[in-house]
Amino acid sequence: MIGERARLSGLARFRLAEPPRYRLVAAMPQTGRNRGDVMRGFLSGVLWPLLACGALIPIYLGMKTGHGVLAFNISYLGLALVIALLERAMPHEEGWLANDGQIGPDLAHTVPANFTGQLKVPFTRAPL
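Below the sequence we write its predicted structure tokens.
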């Protein structure tokens, strides 16, 4: 009996923490938020679909006119430039703006991966 009581009291130290409560920020009034924060949150939620459509629609139109690879390259470069500018204007984390020496390796990865993928396209096309 005494051993059982000691065992149970020892387990009381290991109670599970209450899980976090998630809430919709836009749906709940926030006293510490100003209009700029609300507008920034709205823009960050709207910009990604606009960027995706802004890159995919020209690719689609280029493919319909027979210039798919050119349209892809222009859209890819344009999207990369717009994202780079938006990261400077609206950073997700201020600390990520500091140069950590990764720009060279990032470019060395994305450029060959992009063009290697394009080299595969003529060999994987289905006959019409």
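Residues 30 and 38 are 10 Å apart (CA to CA).
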